[in-house]
Amino acid sequence: MKLLLIALVACFVGASVADHQHERDAINYLTGRIPELRSKHSPSGSAWTSAMYKIVRELDESAEFRDILAAKPEKLEAEPLADSAPFSCQLDRSPSRPTSAHRLRPGDIDVIGAMGDSLTAANGALATSILGLLTEYRGYAWSIGGQVSLSKHTTIANVLRHQNSNLYGHSTGSGKVSSSNSVLNVAEPGKVASDMPGQAKELVRRLQSDSNVNFNKDWKLITLFIGGNDVCDYCKDKNEFSADNYIRYIREALDYLHANVPRAFVNVAEVLDVSLVKDLKDGSSICRVLQGSFLCKCGAMPENEAEEREIQAIIGEYQARLRQLVDSGRYDTREDFTVVTQPFFRNSKPPKINGKYDQSYFAPDCFHFSRKGHDESAKALWNNMIEPVGQKSTSWTPNGPFKCPTNKANMKVLIIAIIACFVNASLADHQHERDAINYLTGRIPELRSKHSPSGSAWTSAMYKIVRELDESAEFRDILAAKPEKLEAEPLADSAPFSCQLDRSPSRPTSAHRLRPGDIDVIGAMGDSLTAANGALATSILGLLTEYRGYAWSIGGQVSLSQHTTLANVLRQNNNNLYGHSTGSGSVHNRNSVLNVAVPGNVASHMPGQAKLLVSKLQSDPNVNFNNDWKLITLFIGGNDREFSADNYIKHIREALDYLHANVPKAFVNVAELLDVSLVKELKDGSSICNVLQGSLLCRCGAFPENEAEEREVQAIIGEYQSRLRQLVDSGRYDTREDFTVVNQPFFKNSKPPRINGKYDQSYFAPDCFHFSRKGHDESAKALWNNMIEPVGQKSTSWTPGGPFKCPTSPRLLIEKIFLSTTERTVRRYLGRRRDHAVFNASTAISDASKRPIDLVEQPKFQRIPTWILRYQRSSSNEAYQSQANQDVHLSNYHQHERDAINYLTSRIPELRSKQPLAGAAWTNALFKIVKELDSSVQFRDVLATNKPAEPVSAEPTSSFNCQLTRSPTKPTSAHRLRPGDIDVIAAMGDSLTAANGALATSILGLTTEYRGYAWSIGGEASLRQHTTLANILKDQNSRLYGYSTGKGAISSSAAVLNVAVPGNVASHVPGQARLLVEKLKSDSRVNFNNDWKLITLLIGGNDVCAYCKDKRAFSADNYIRYIREALDYLHANVPRAFVNVAEVLDVSLVKELKDASAICGVLQGSLLCKCGAFPENEAEERDVKTIIGEYQARLRQLVDSGRYDTREDFTVVTQPFLRNSKPPRINGVYDQSYLAPDCFHFSRKGHDETGKALWNNMLEPDRSEGDRVEYWRPFQVPDFVEAVLCYQEELMRPTQLMAFCDDFFSQVPISTWNFVLVVAV
């Protein structure tokens, strides 16, 4: 110890710090001595303080260190900073207490609170030695301290107290969170994001119980700052401190505040870039020791460059995900609550003196803030709070001034400038409009919100803009509103409507046989374009009016001859249509009827609108909720210009899910987003358009900051549109006959015609953004035409002046066409092509036109009336029967099996668990089931396992004649890999990969894991005897390693690199990935860095089977999150790897498979797959089908995202062969010889076919035709002389193509070159 400390002191006083070996020795010593430092997670609260005391005590044993550690007395009454900027802002309160967070002035704040870690607890703020780090100087904390006045020290609390002596909640003095001095500062040293929900609850408890707080009326300012310790712990546990977990805990905390705190403005400060401690620590050895042992080893002393890059990446991801959360609109559902991201820490660094960071901003540990650091942070936060959203500073400005709320100066000058521009000035650079926009933004709080105002706030903002502009006499006349007529004249060029819309002879039960005349009720959801703001406006004052009677999708103020709307079209032949809006008014006005659109709303409001619409439908006596057919049109996205495509589609999905779950007999139109980027040109119609769009309506589209931002706006529009199509096309809403969702793309490319080279403004209101009556007319006609057009042939733009399309279809042998739904509908009614993933709709229609409609309904499956306990084996398909050989008759609802299942569930605790059983627990449950069944004499013989396992056939399962030679030299790229180059094989998954029951002749054999026969990795027999992927590769490569043999659990030597575990689900896969990497690294037969590894992952069957028990835990989001986490781990840790990810099998087919025997029904219903085998009802059956499709689709999206294409020596490929796989039928019944005795797991024959299908998928360049097992299909042979493994469904990059050609032409005879060149061309 003495030697270490002497070395440390020598380093501290002047020794070279080139490699910091002395500090590393000291760090290692301290870590060995102090248990808290060996914990995977940073100590928190009292444990943090205890660890710091122990470090100091150890260092204090040295006389040399004693003087350095000796604490000079810290003064709580510190002197003012010499260079602190003066504060001269006037912070008056509002004339009356505001009710909206978007109209809040700084002077209105009554209460202040804070949450966070030691940076908010202010550890070491006045420290002059490391002993002072133990003290929490809360009175000087940047966001909440109030020990001294503003003239001596800057904090947010001191700024607000400057003119509001009644402010409450600021902390004073020093002490822990439990001390009375902390007041509403609930931050604690060492805390991480996972502690924030607890801090939120503690803060709410204090607010509610403190007599100094009027909980319901006082305005509260709360600042949350967390993440430094998460980053510093990231390299210890990347899963625990992932961005997903970080944001999950922040979201949980903000959700709690949002649900429980009235009148609150919440600042969320982005995490500081703690990677700068790597440079800061060099200020002293004591900094290096403290940071390396305790404070931030990840940031201060990264193991290597890769870890350093990871730290930078996770900081950026924390910051970006935080912005996404706040920008999502999640916390904009109440007027009296808002959350704002304050980004001033994002790029903050202290200034440099002589090339080194100025240490005066930091405490003696070079990590925590000194008083000066707290001072600068407070000023930066204040300035961020004043700066408009989108223009906030992202770093400190040391010694810079305080920013003040904008005053009223220069108003007249600006208004005169606007007038000049409006009447005749040049619009070349729009500077006058920009000045006006900035002025209005400074004056009107709603315009400074990061999110567009919504509802009454939107209208309020428009009123304020008009009021400000109205101060000028010149503007008064321009703004004066000519009276708008609600009974408008018909448009001269409106197209005539001549279609006949008869009702069906009887009310249809399917949305896919619905005629337009069958619609009884109409509804609409959206924003101001559906509320029809300004439709009849002749000035900008008219924009305040919602002319709902003229709304394109639902208006019904006048007849179709006067104005086209979708409602008017339907009313033409159906006077009883209900729900159309009339007149003008807000959503609360009775004229709105079933038009629930609200101006300013964004996608995040759609779930709420869906709930409101359903409530109206259910409570309105004019609606027969269960019997009436409803047409609902949803159009949203124009205001979402600031939000990600993920959030946009998440909210749309949530709204559609709610309608799907709650509304019978509904046809839902979803209109794609209009290209709002055209407002950049439209706005030039007048200065007033420029000012309105730049201040309130669409600043992103009208005034992009630069070309990059303009491209971003274009990109996000395209992404919104494509993601919306994906959602609708996913089949998510095709699970009920009486409900469908159809994407209507007519807005995608819609633009008004041009006159003299400029857009015709007559299609727009005076703001050049909302539709005029003419614009509503064209939009309605385009929507109607889209509804009639078949899927795949829909128009994507307006056709001004064009005709209405009418329903006609003589080919379908019905008098009137149905409304056009999706191709999936055509498949259902015109014959499904079950053997192909890609369906040709036109061929099906053509075929269907030759026969009556009744003959092309869904085919019926043969049902077997009686059931026998039997087990069919491969080869002979012999049926083994029970001792009594007695038929056990079951009803169609399998009541006998249900009784047995219920009995077993009551007897065996494991079967009552909500979570799937895994590993030993799974095997144990199966043993208990067998034991219970064995109590019956009749069952005992059936369960007996006296027969030996099925002998392995000496005959080949299928001929394999491919030549798999290795590359001349070991490739360095996964994209030039040949099958013969594979050195190591591995597998991850569940009991299908562990090969449970592969050789079983009774259900007792299901407990045995026949890993040597596993389709993807088994190597027990030769390829001539049994097909597995491993056998194919080792047939010509005796050096292949990793394949499993024999039988046994994952812990047995037989498993080798097969880490699959029975019962595992997706959440176990990250653990499997870590175990596999550990095995690869520790196995002496694996050259970890040089060997090429082939890894196959199949997981999801158990997730689907558990879905009906817990839809949240086994959602597609969670499924894909765990898969991503596992693949991320492999990507980060495994060199030279080709990863197959097989899509999940359609386990819903077990519903029919189980009917092979009662024992199958009992096993599947009690343990294996009750969701699939015994769905409670049709809805649950549809849910299971839907989640399977969603798992498959999301898996493809993940792999296709390019996330794993960043390294040449690593790739991930989706193999879809199981997507549509089903065993062949014999006499109408599935051939059970492919399955084990439980009718769920694969038999040896099933493993054989699956192994072959995987091999063929790996060689197929386009897997659209390879998404199922094709029984007895021959082996695929590598193309040309040698094949590279197919890694993407796209062409090779040019460099890879050239390299491949080099290899190819070195081996192909010259005589074949002409042929090859022709093929290449």
Mean pLDDT over the full residue set: 74
Fraction in helix? 25-40%
Number of strand segments: 20
Strand order of the largest sheet: 1-2-3-4
- Tally of helical runs: 44
Would you give an account of this structure?
With 1321 residues, this protein is of the alpha/beta class. Helices cover 36% and strands 7% of the residues. The chain is built from 44 helices and 20 strands. The protein has a 4-stranded parallel beta sheet with strand order 1-2-3-4, with helices on both faces. A hairpin with a 2-residue loop joins strand 11 and strand 12 (758-759). Helix 15 (411-423) packs across helix 16. The chain starts with a helix and ends with a helix. The N terminus and C terminus are likely disordered. Pfam families: Lipase_GDSL (PF00657). Residues 955-972 have a biased composition (Polar residues).
